[in-house]
Design brief:
about 375 residues; 6-stranded parallel beta sheet; alpha/beta; 13 helices; 6 strands; extended; single chain
């Protein structure tokens, strides 16, 4: 009981006008100080702990999710005011569909309510020019909820200063699988005539055709000999050429000694070279294509796993932070130390890179002198 009274007293003091005014100005001062240093351009959040917060505070689970949404609104304002361009939040996992139908329907209804509440913060989105994007398998979403999602994305589509990615429903395995599938589809389409440049495979095919044309001419000359051995050599050579080069021109073309023109309209279709598939090609097929690389990923509630979230985007320079606070408790005072530490690490890495470049430049000058 005394702890409850102390909590109510603390809440009353913090909500008093003088204290609120002081806290507001302190927040602005701290955010302004953050802007003086480097700021991560892409930050992701795993918003975990709403249920545990509700249970520990003996309130309804729905109220815990509502407080979690209020925490998201606070964090978004801090991010965009600090200079973060892209914020990605994990709202709903595809794995959640494995739960009971009652629970899945409840989560979908809650998502609809949260989306409506997010649009009610239109002043926040318009103030910082934030556009909403929903990433995931939309075909799994109920039609009425999908209509609300499309309406929300359309309402904010003209905002171009910042982006809010809502992953719903989403898993990294599904995203990577979709990206690979789309890449295979693109590379299964023949190249248009104007795009058939002198690639390595194109040149190799042309050289093989010319080599086979010369070999065919020699075979034809040797075939004029009446000896059975020569005829046998012709047969063996022809079959070997066909076996080693299954995509070579037809036999009658080879025997005629004509050179094959691979640029001719009648030549086989040319396809993109699979050797040209790189991580950049796959990255262009991800949901986050064209966005800044992920620099900071934060998960609350003390759970130290990614839960199939942003696995592709988490590269060698991504800072991953696990916090013990529950998501409804997350605000500037938990976010500030993370950003300060990120800035310190970034400056330290830049100093190390400058030192390495300086040493390399000194070595080059020493060798040239």
């Amino acid at each position: 009981m005394p702890s409850m009274h102390l909590s109510q007293l603390r809440r009353w003091i913090l909500q008093s006008p003088p204290v609120e005014w002081a806290i507001l100005h302190l927040r602005e001062l701290l955010i302004g100080a953050l802007r003086q240093g480097p700021i991560p351009q892409h930050v992701a959040f795993v918003m975990d702990g709403n249920r545990r917060f509700a249970k520990s505070h003996r309130i309804e689970t729905v109220e815990g999710h509502n407080l979690g949404f209020e925490a998201l609104a606070r964090v978004l304002e801090v991010c965009y005011k600090s200079g973060v361009k892209v914020v990605t939040v994990y709202a709903f996992s595809i794995e959640n569909f494995k739960r009971s139908k009652y629970e899945v329907d409840g989560l979908m209804d809650m998502a609809k309510v949260k989306l409506a509440q997010l649009l009610q913060h239109g002043d926040l989105l318009d103030r910082y020019g934030v556009s909403i994007r929903v990433l995931g398998q939309r075909e799994l979403i109920k039609p009425e909820l999908l209509a609300d999602i499309e309406r929300a994305t359309k309402m904010t589509s003209r905002n171009g200063n910042a982006i809010l990615n809502v992953c719903f429903p989403y898993t990294s395995h599904e995203e990577i699988t979709t990206a690979i599938r789309n890449t295979v589809t693109d590379y299964s389409k023949p190249l248009p005539m104007q795009q058939r440049t002198f690639s390595e495979s194109h040149i190799k095919h042309t050289l093989q055709s010319r080599h086979l044309s010369v070999a065919a001419e020699r075979i034809r000359e040797r075939s004029r000999s009446p000896s059975s051995r020569g005829a046998s050599d012709v047969e063996d050579s022809t079959s070997s050429s066909t076996t080693l080069h299954p995509d070579s021109p037809p036999e009658d073309t080879l025997m005629s000694g004509k050179e094959v023109d691979v640029s001719d309209d009648t030549s086989p279709n040319l396809y993109p070279d699979p050797e040209s598939i790189t991580p950049a090609v796959l990255n262009a097929h991800m949901y986050t294509a064209g966005l800044p690389p992920l620099e900071l990923l934060i998960r609350t509630s003390g759970v130290e796993r990614l839960s199939d979230f942003m696995l592709w985007q988490s590269h060698e320079n991504t800072e991953i932070v696990f916090l013990k606070c529950l998501w409804p408790e997350f605000d500037l005072w938990q976010f500030l130390p993370v950003l300060v530490e990120w800035q310190w690490r970034r400056k330290k890495n830049e100093e190390q890179e400058r030192a390495i470049r300086s040493v390399e430049a000194s070595d080059v000058r020493a060798k040239s002198s």
